[in-house]
């Protein structure tokens, strides 16, 4: 089987701010701080209390917005924003969010982080009732459900819609008169609430608060819906059937190290993962190095626990684009070399421990091991700060088929041989839970571990799964 590509990619990040005269510009900075969560599209919608204004486009935040477009958006006091990595719906302009829906009564803008597992089913039902969809994004289903039931009570309509959709969703919504933030009953995606002076702010990661000078207040709770308007903030719940299960990969890979998720700093959690990995998988070596950027914290933790020096054994070129878009395998190989290079003076003649956060398809791990050997490493011992990823994710990560996952069809020893390492050890599920440090009294410590265990926190609908994948859900 041939494995291509490297990184796990998540769908997006959301941001919202209410009660600030520079709302759109602050949304721009908030999105910029969360650019790591999506690089394919960006958008901002704002309001002045009379109308919604929006601008979006394909590309990075800096590519989509300039001073002129931000000035045009900064006509009011509230804005929501979004950066996107396409998992469902494809990378086309129409799918870039926030999606804006205009009607005679009022308008609605929606930004969504996550993925709905019953979107296909709901879309079919809505189309039978006359809905016409303008995008292939599952986010549009949410707006249609709200508008379908919208009578005199907009909030009740939103609650009803949220009770129907299933899967992962951290939402920001904007009308002319209010901003809404909501989180699915499992809290699969992070969403935090902050304050900037008198303005309220919501964001997928707390690093956005730090950039704009906002103060973290608390995390949005699973099943919670927050309404912010000129009268202040109002909290309610659209369901009492909640069971926290935040995505484990937020701590392992996705979130920025300076972000805090439900009281736990991401950098500290990753260092603990590295320390636990050192306990479970020690090895005699001369240097420890991490694969930039998300694995450096774990590598530092591993080095501290073992006493083996941490060294900068690999350098990342931050000015190279994503390698998988290259049109041939030869060019993809060259792209990886441009993006990452070994430091010969550090690894030559050394036994190297290479710490990485995950192995998805195996191709990049093989290239990095080969790169270290070419630079003179005498041994390369690979240590992974997460358990093997054996099952697809249906909640907004681009691993929707098991055929993409090398650990679903190969043993650890097989993978070791395929990537050319002298040894390979993954962190155990129990070690991962203990290292992250979430409440052990909660089921699975309040984490979703479906990609490691195959036990999904929600029902997975048949239309969500490819036919040959259905046996994995048994």
From TrEMBL:
| Top enzyme class | transferase
Q: Which gene encodes it?
A: purF
Domain of life assignment: Bacteria
Give the EC number(s) listed in the UniProt record.
2.4.2.14
Which species is the source of this protein?
Answer: Sporolactobacillus inulinus CASD
Key words, A-Z:
4Fe-4S, Glutamine amidotransferase, Glycosyltransferase, Iron, Iron-sulfur, Magnesium, Metal-binding, Purine biosynthesis, Transferase
Q: Which cofactor does it need?
A: Mg(2+); [4Fe-4S] cluster
Q: Which reaction does it catalyse?
A: 5-phospho-beta-D-ribosylamine + L-glutamate + diphosphate = 5-phospho-alpha-D-ribose 1-diphosphate + L-glutamine + H2O
**Where does this protein hold Mg(2+)?**
294, 356-357
Signal peptide extent: none
HAMAP family given in the database record: PurF
Recorded hits in Pfam families, A to Z, give: GATase_7
Q: Tell me which residues this entry annotates as catalytic.
A: 12
The UniProt record gives the binding positions of [4Fe-4S] cluster as 247, 393, 448, 451
Q: How is the cofactor bound?
A: Binds 1 Mg(2+) ion per subunit.
Its lineage opens with: Bacteria, Bacillati, Bacillota, Bacilli, Bacillales
Q: Can you supply a Gene Ontology BP term from the record?
A: purine nucleobase biosynthetic process
The answer to keyword Iron-sulfur applying to this record is yes
Q: Which residues form the Glutamine amidotransferase type-2 domain?
A: 12-231
Q: What is this protein called?
A: Amidophosphoribosyltransferase
* Family per record: In the C-terminal section; belongs to the purine/pyrimidine phosphoribosyltransferase family.
> A Gene Ontology molecular-function term?
4 iron, 4 sulfur cluster binding
Write down the Gene3D superfamilies for this protein, in alphabetical order.
3.40.50.2020, Glutamine Phosphoribosylpyrophosphate, subunit 1, domain 1
Enumerate the PROSITE patterns for this protein. GATASE_TYPE_2
Q: Which CDD domains match?
A: GPATase_N (cd00715), PRTases_typeI (cd06223)
The protein's role, per its UniProt record: Catalyzes the formation of phosphoribosylamine from phosphoribosylpyrophosphate (PRPP) and glutamine.
* Pathway named in the protein's UniProt entry: Purine metabolism; IMP biosynthesis via de novo pathway; N(1)-(5-phospho-D-ribosyl)glycinamide from 5-phospho-alpha-D-ribose 1-diphosphate: step 1/2
Keyword Transferase in record: yes
């Amino acid at each position: 089987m041939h494995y291509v590509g490297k990184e796990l990619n998540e769908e997006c990040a959301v941001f919202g701010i209410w009660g600030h005269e520079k709302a759109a510009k602050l949304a721009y900075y908030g999105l910029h701080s969360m650019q790591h969560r999506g690089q394919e599209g960006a958008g901002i919608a704002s309001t002045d209390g009379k109308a919604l204004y929006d601008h979006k486009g394909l590309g990075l935040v800096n590519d989509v917005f300039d001073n002129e477009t931000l000035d045009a958006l900064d006509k009011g006091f509230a804005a929501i924003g979004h950066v996107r990595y396409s998992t469902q719906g494809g990378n086309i302009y129409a799918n870039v969010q926030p999606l804006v829906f205009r009607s005679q009564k009022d308008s609605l803008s929606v930004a969504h982080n996550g993925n709905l597992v019953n979107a296909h089913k709901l879309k079919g039902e809505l189309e039978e009732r006359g809905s016409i969809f303008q995008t292939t994004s599952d986010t549009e289903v949410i707006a249609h459900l709200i508008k379908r039931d919208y009578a005199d009570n907009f909030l009740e309509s939103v609650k009803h819609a949220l009770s129907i959709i299933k899967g992962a969703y951290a939402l920001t919504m904007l009308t002319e008169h209010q901003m809404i933030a909501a989180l699915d009953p499992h809290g699969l995606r992070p969403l935090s609430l902050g304050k900037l002076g008198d303005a309220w702010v919501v964001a997928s990661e707390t690093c956005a608060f730090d950039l704009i000078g906002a103060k973290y207040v608390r995390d949005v709770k699973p099943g919670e819906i927050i309404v912010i308007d000129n009268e202040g903030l109002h909290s309610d719940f659209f369901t009492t059937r909640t069971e926290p299960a935040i995505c484990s990969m937020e701590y392992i890979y996705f979130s920025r190290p300076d972000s805090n998720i439900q009281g736990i700093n991401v950098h500290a959690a990753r260092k603990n993962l590295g320390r636990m990995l050192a306990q479970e998988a020690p090895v005699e070596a001369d240097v420890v190095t991490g694969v930039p950027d998300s694995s450096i914290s774990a590598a530092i933790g591993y080095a501290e626990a073992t006493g083996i020096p941490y060294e900068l054994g690999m350098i990342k070129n931050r000015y190279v684009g994503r390698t998988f878009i290259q049109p041939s395998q030869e060019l993809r190989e060259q792209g990886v070399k441009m993006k990452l290079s070994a430091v010969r003076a550090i690894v030559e003649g050394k036994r190297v421990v290479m710490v990485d956060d995950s192995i998805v398809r195996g191709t990049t791990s093989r290239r990095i091991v080969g790169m270290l050997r070419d630079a003179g490493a005498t041994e390369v011992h690979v240590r992974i700060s997460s358990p093997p990823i054996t099952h697809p994710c249906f909640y907004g990560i681009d691993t929707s088929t098991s055929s993409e996952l090398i650990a679903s069809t190969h043993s650890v020893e097989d993978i070791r041989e395929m990537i050319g390492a002298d040894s390979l050890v993954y962190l155990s599920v129990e070690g991962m839970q203990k290292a992250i440090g979430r409440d052990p009294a909660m089921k699975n410590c309040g984490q979703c571990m479906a990609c490691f265990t195959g036990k999904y926190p929600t029902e997975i609908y048949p239309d969500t799964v490819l036919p040959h994948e259905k046996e994995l859900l048994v």
